[in-house]
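stage 2 :: seqdesign
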């Protein structure tokens, strides 16, 4: 009996140890399994976009870039399912607005409507507060365009030949309005100076709208402005168009000669509109925006701009915008140097 009692006590001890071991393992499993599961299953990422998107326009409201940006915003918000707003931040030759986006969160909610100046500013400034190559991610080249040479209807200048004759007769006295140093309106005028061998004085503004306002008021003599900013005024007879800056005539303005055929052989100047995001914006976000732009440029609103204002719609891949801007940067660097263009 004693022997049997010993066996029973030992068995009980073994059973108790087994129960405690099982309980410990159960507790450990309860603690570990959720953690392992958490590591194995990534949290669901919300689909872009979740909130309002902002497009920064580095010019005053009412100009050509503003028109393109607002048309873009209107079209892509339908596709993206979220509101897209415009924020005008003019000044310093587009640097103020551009820097705003360069220092924004790279999440796709702050975008830049870049133009001609984006490719020229590296030649104009010894030091920029951002790197136009490293601090931005290309989204899409939306459209290319030419500029249009316009004067006040009361002006005695009725043609490019008249403009050249007047400029030669009064060196430095004719003023041409620009959207700021290094913008398309500025360098198109400087290219005209160089190729026509005349000297007109550039007057910088914070955008096309205030410059055109002064042209209408007679404070300046001529502008090499974007078509988007002037087409409606030309159609209404409030501005007189002399020529287009494209290499050849445009189907949108068949009655207007190209500057090249009207007295300055070989002349051509082009403007453009491209959308950028801050560098390190996630690739899926860039792809989604690019897809929305590609769809937008096929819309009726953009088709109307294409027909009425001579825009050449693109909506290409991000890499196309990078290549195009690189070519533009190289093209205008020589003129900036030869004309000794400096930022005041």
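stage 2 :: out
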């Amino acid at each position: 009996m004693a022997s049997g009692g010993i066996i029973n006590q030992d068995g009980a001890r073994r059973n108790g140890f087994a129960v405690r071991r099982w309980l410990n393992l159960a507790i450990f499993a309860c603690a570990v399994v959720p953690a392992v599961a958490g590591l194995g299953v990534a949290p669901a990422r919300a689909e872009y976009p979740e909130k309002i998107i902002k497009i920064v326009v580095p010019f005053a409201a009412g100009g050509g870039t503003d028109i393109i940006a607002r048309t873009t915003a209107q079209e892509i918000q339908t596709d993206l399912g979220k509101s897209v707003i415009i924020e005008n931040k003019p000044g310093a030759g587009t640097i103020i607005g551009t820097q705003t986006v360069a220092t924004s969160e790279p999440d796709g909610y702050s975008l830049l409507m870049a133009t001609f100046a984006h490719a020229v500013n590296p030649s104009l400034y010894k030091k920029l507060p951002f790197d136009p190559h490293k601090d931005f991610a290309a989204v899409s080249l939306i459209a290319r365009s030419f500029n249009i040479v316009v004067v006040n209807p009361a002006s005695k200048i009725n043609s490019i030949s008249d403009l050249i004759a007047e400029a030669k007769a009064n060196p430095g006295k004719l003023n041409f309005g620009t959207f700021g140093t290094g913008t398309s309106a500025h360098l198109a005028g400087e290219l005209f100076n160089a190729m026509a061998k005349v000297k007109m004085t550039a007057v910088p503004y914070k955008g096309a709208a205030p410059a055109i306002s002064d042209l209408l008021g007679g404070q300046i003599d001529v502008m090499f402005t974007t078509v988007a900013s002037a087409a409606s005024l030309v159609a209404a007879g409030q501005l007189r168009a002399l020529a287009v800056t494209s290499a050849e005539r445009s189907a949108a303005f068949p009655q207007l000669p190209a500057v090249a055929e009207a007295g300055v052989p070989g002349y051509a100047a082009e403007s453009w509109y491209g959308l950028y995001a801050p560098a390190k914006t996630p690739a899926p976000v860039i792809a989604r925006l690019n897809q929305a732009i590609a769809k937008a440029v096929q819309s009726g609103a953009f088709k109307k701009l294409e027909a009425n204002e001579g825009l050449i719609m693109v909506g290409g891949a991000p890499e196309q915008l990078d290549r195009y801007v690189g070519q533009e940067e190289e093209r205008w660097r020589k003129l900036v140097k030869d004309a000794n263009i400096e930022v005041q």
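stage 3 :: structure notes
- The first helix runs from residue 2 to 40.
- DSSP finds eleven helices and ten strands in the chain.
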